[in-house]
Amino acid sequence: MRIDILTLFPEMFEGPLTQSIMKRAVDKGLVEMHFHDIRDYTLDKHKKVDDYAFGGGAGMVMTIQPIADLIDKLKAERNYDQVIYMTPDGQRFEQRIANTLSLCGNIMILCGHYKGVDQRIRDHYVTMELSIGDYVLTGGELAAAVVSDAIIRLIPGVMSDETSALTDSFQDGLLSPPVYTRPADYHGWKVPDVLLSGNQAMIDEWREQQAYERTKQIRPDLLED
Ligand code: 6GU
């Protein structure tokens, strides 16, 4: 898979996507990440990439020209399955969308900033608009990193234990059950007996029950459908 990220702040991706499992995915050649600085494509002599909103109001709007030229250039080089725009007014990102996107070959992710991009970019290029939740970030970069991480870990070969993605919270519609490791007794804080019993059927049943109880407590909305 190839992910192209279009942003005014490419340095914001130097941390999160270059560590641990994400780094391994790139090193193994399972994913290619490319970061493009939108400002490099502006034809404005002062390198401007934003302007006042028609109709007035506070906040700047990202102009069409640099974004359109960059997207056109990339689309001339390869086909993209999705051109995603990160915006707080997009569709809420969830595991089901990550699963679908993990099957793509090439995706482009455009990060909005300020008041966002000119609507005509959304109308003419963008095929999917995503938000990562009902709160406002200063820009789409952190959200794009979140979406990229969620997608990349689902690519076969990225996770060392491939089955582990299948037992995640949300893959079966429930939160994950509690987990424990050694020691079995830490200063009197004991691991539930059933996990030490060796009876796999009982353990599986306990985990399912715990997952259900946790979901009912914390995320009852997940049980509604
Ligand atoms: Cl995608 N962008 C911004 N700026 N804020 C957000 C978001 C995206 N998702 C949640 N909040």
Automatic annotation (TrEMBL):
The keyword Nucleotide-binding does not apply. SUPFAM superfamilies: alpha/beta knot (SSF75217). Its EC number is 2.1.1.228. InterPro entries: Alpha/beta_knot_MTases, tRNA_m1G_MeTrfase_C_sf, tRNA_m1G_MeTrfase_TrmD, tRNA_m1G_MTases_N, tRNA_MeTrfase_TRMD/TRM10. It catalyses: guanosine(37) in tRNA + S-adenosyl-L-methionine = N(1)-methylguanosine(37) in tRNA + S-adenosyl-L-homocysteine + H(+). One of its GO terms (biological process) is methylation. Pfam families: tRNA_m1G_MT (PF01746). One of its GO terms (molecular function) is tRNA (guanine(37)-N1)-methyltransferase activity. Keywords: Cytoplasm, Methyltransferase, S-adenosyl-L-methionine, Transferase, tRNA processing. S-adenosyl-L-methionine binds at G112, I132, G133, D134, Y135, V136, L137. Residues 1-224 form the tRNA methyltransferase TRMD/TRM10-type domain. The keyword S-adenosyl-L-methionine applies. Belongs to the RNA methyltransferase TrmD family. Homodimer. PANTHER family: TRNA (GUANINE-N(1)-)-METHYLTRANSFERASE. Specifically methylates guanosine-37 in various tRNAs. This is tRNA (guanine-N(1)-)-methyltransferase.
